Amino acid sequence: MPFVTPTELPRGPSSQFSPQQGRFEQGRKLARGVMQAVPHVQSFAAYIANCVAVGDLLEAKKAGIRLLEFDPSLQ
Q1: Which among 29, 50, 66, 70 has most CB atoms closer than 10 A?
Q2: What is the pLDDT of residue 62?
Q3: How far apart are the first and last CA of the chain?
């Protein structure tokens, strides 16, 4: 994918994310894929952090619960 400057991104009510939120959404998708393919505490943490950054607190909470199920020693 070619580099896109912030001025080239869509603006106004039709754009779903700000440039920064878009990066967090990309990070969230990547972390989710890693978390599902190779579960590890770090991939859960990355997914949770990106969920919080885009404002999806419910999904972050669900991922936190899955993390505690994955590694109960974190309690």
Answers
A1: 50
A2: 95
A3: 40
Q: What does pLDDT average to over the chain?
A: 80
Q: Are 50 and 27 in contact (CB under 8 A)?
A: yes
| Total-model pTM | 0.70
Residue 29 domain-assigned?
Answer: yes
Does 24 map to a domain?
yes
> Between vectors from CA 47 to CA 6 and to CA 75, what angle results, nearest 5°?
145
36-64 tens-digit pLDDT: 898 899 999 999 999 999 999 999 999 99
Q: How many domains does the chain have?
A: 1
Cα–Cα distances in angstroms (integers) from residue 62 to residues 10, 32, 33, 44, in the given order: 31, 12, 16, 11
Give 25's contacts (C-beta < 8 A, 6+ positions apart).
17, 50, 54
